[in-house]
Amino acid sequence: KDIQYSVNNVAKQALDHIHANETILTLGYSNTVEQFFTYAAEKKRQFHVFILEHAPFYTGHKMAENLAKAKVPVPVTVVTDSAVFAIMARVNKIVIGTRSLLANG
């Protein structure tokens, strides 16, 4: 229950970090990141998310599907991991879950 409260608290900070018409890159699936984006979309913030598919498990597809089916859909584009170089010039911000940062997950 405490973890869900912390996820909600992180999501409520989305408007401080996501600005109008930004292009954001994320990696794979993270419940916290999903809630973060969903909260911003529900508050009418306009932004686009590029999601790396995160091979070999391809969890980015799950993230894209969830965001597209949210109450207020978030515009998403799934990108293969090897093609990230092609979109980096368009990205304003990178948002990743904490599991992506730690070697031991």
Q: Biggest sheet, strands in spatial order?
A: 3-2-1-4
- In which range does the helix fraction lie? 25-40%
Query: Could you give a short account of the major beta sheet?
Result: 4 strands, parallel
What's the end-to-end separation, in Å?
Answer: 21 Å
Model description:
The protein has 105 residues and is of the alpha/beta class. Helix content is 38%, strand content 17%. It has helices at 2-11, 14-17, 31-42, 59-68, 84-87; strands at residues 22-27, 47-52, 76-79, 93-94. The protein has a 4-stranded parallel β-sheet with strand order 3-2-1-4, with helices on one face. Strand 2 (47-52), helix 4 (59-68) and strand 3 (76-79) form a beta-alpha-beta unit. The longest helix has 12 residues, at 31-42.
Descriptive labels:
single chain; 105 residues; alpha/beta; four-stranded parallel β-sheet; 5 helices; 38% helix; 17% strand; globular
List the helices and strands and how they pair.
Elements: H1 2-11, H2 14-17, E1 22-27, H3 31-42, E2 47-52, H4 59-68, E3 76-79, H5 84-87, E4 93-94
Parallel strand pairs: 1-2, 1-4, 2-3
Helix pairs in contact: 1-3
Concise structural overview:
By secondary structure, this protein is an alpha/beta fold. The chain is 38% helix and 17% strand. It has a four-stranded parallel beta sheet with strand order 3-2-1-4, covered by helices on one side.
